């Protein structure tokens, strides 16, 4: 029976290698001495140990869709969650729908089953359900973990639980080896229950950084996914391409964002259209009237989860950094190498934002011209060969 406990609904949790950590909003990091920092850096450089080397007696299975050959942050968190609560006699098996080129061992998996016949852009719920059921039948896992998202994993997890009549917990924000918990009653209460057969984990509930590695063994899996996907009542109608500028920032996978360093807004918008990216802006750029309020990214604006986020002329105030904390790859273009956003960025280009935008527009125009010239020459050659024939 579920137990309810009144809580502060906005209090976040993170499951780490040290256990459950409750984060106090506004709490700053603890300062450390140079000696402690050096010791920590040396410890990080050491090779991580294997989580377990004993013969497995039970299995935990993690299933997720790949995105361009890799697992996204949410999927990596889910895999880490399963690895953190697994004991020495438990094997963690990762099932990836789609092509996967990452390091499964570094993510905590002991075995990897890759199903490249399933593309995340294609909708094949029955084929994926059959594949997952086949993996479950082969390994008989004690628990199945999946990211609770809107891009296939959450739907597949619910379909499997319904088909297998399995116990399931959704939107899980707290987990250990004995229980799971989630917000209920419009986030005004907290419900806990014993660890179910299917766990759908909410985003940002687990720290994906692990102090160990898994075995990372690749398992050759034969599954006729194409024929399985073609049978049934579900038919994939494809994906309708839309203008990236019309896409909500919360749903955008590629965002270019402008700050105070961008003066030529039309040139910036041309670049966004060329790259097929959604447009965002800092609060300063919005307050200056360069962009509408719905383009604002930050604590007082939108929180985004793009795979690629390019910031032009944005210094990176703490409010803006909160809005991009879940972005996978951040590229900053700024004249100030010591700007706060440079610490968050995966790549920082020390250059004038406006000059960089102009150079990228020129490079794109040159590429289009070259491509058009090449196509014209090819068409002329084909026409001439046809005339000679």
Automatic annotation (TrEMBL):
Residues 249-325 form the Electron transfer flavoprotein alpha subunit C-terminal domain. Keywords: Electron transport, Transport. Pfam families: ETF (PF01012), ETF_alpha (PF00766). Residues 60-208 form the Electron transfer flavoprotein alpha/beta-subunit N-terminal domain. Gene3D superfamilies: HUPs, TPP-binding domain. GO terms for biological process: fatty acid beta-oxidation using acyl-CoA dehydrogenase. InterPro entries: DHS-like_NAD/FAD-binding_dom, ETF_a/b_N, ETF_a/FixB, ETF_asu_C, Rossmann-like_a/b/a_fold. GO terms for molecular function: electron transfer activity; flavin adenine dinucleotide binding. Belongs to the ETF alpha-subunit/FixB family. This is Electron transfer flavoprotein subunit alpha. It comes from Paraburkholderia ginsengiterrae.
């Amino acid at each position: 029976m579920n137990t309810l406990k009144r809580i502060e609904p906005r209090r976040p949790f993170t499951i780490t290698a040290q256990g459950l950590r409750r984060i106090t909003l506004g709490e700053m990091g603890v300062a450390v001495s140079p000696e402690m920092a050096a010791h920590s850096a040396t410890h990080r450089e050491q090779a991580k140990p294997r989580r377990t080397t004993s013969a497995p007696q039970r299995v935990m299975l993690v299933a997720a869709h790949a995105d361009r050959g890799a697992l996204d942050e949410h999927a990596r968190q889910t895999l880490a969650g399963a690895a953190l609560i697994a004991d020495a006699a438990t094997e963690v098996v990762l099932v990836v729908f789609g092509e996967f080129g990452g390091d499964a061992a570094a993510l905590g998996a002991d075995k990897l089953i890759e199903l490249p016949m399933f593309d995340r852009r294609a909708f094949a719920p029955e084929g994926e359900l059959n594949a997952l059921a086949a993996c479950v039948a082969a390994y008989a896992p004690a628990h199945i973990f999946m990211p609770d998202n809107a891009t296939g994993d959450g739907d597949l997890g619910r379909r499997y639980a319904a088909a297998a009549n399995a116990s399931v917990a959704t939107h899980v924000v707290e987990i250990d080896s004995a229980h799971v918990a989630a917000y209920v009653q419009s986030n005004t209460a907290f419900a806990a229950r014993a660890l179910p057969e299917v766990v759908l984990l909410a985003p940002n509930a687990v720290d994906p950084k692990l102090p160990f590695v898994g075995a990372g063994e690749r398992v050759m899996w034969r599954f006729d996914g194409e024929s399985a996907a073609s049978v049934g009542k579900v038919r994939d109608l494809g994906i309708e391409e839309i203008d990236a500028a019309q896409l909500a920032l919360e749903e955008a996978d590629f965002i270019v964002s402008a700050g105070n360093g961008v003066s030529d807004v039309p040139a910036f918008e041309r670049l966004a259209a060329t790259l097929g990216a959604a447009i965002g802006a800092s609060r300063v750029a919005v307050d200056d009237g360069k962009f509408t309020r719905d383009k604002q990214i930050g604590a007082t604006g939108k929180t985004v989860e793009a795979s690629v986020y390019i910031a032009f002329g944005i210094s990176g105030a703490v409010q803006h950094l909160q809005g991009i904390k879940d972005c996978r790859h951040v590229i900053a273009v700024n004249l100030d190498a010591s700007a706060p956003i440079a610490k968050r960025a995966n790549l920082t280009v020390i250059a004038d934002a406006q000059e960089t935008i102009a150079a990228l527009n020129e490079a794109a125009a040159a590429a289009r011209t070259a491509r058009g010239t090449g196509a014209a020459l090819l068409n002329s050659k084909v026409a001439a060969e046809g005339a000679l024939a």
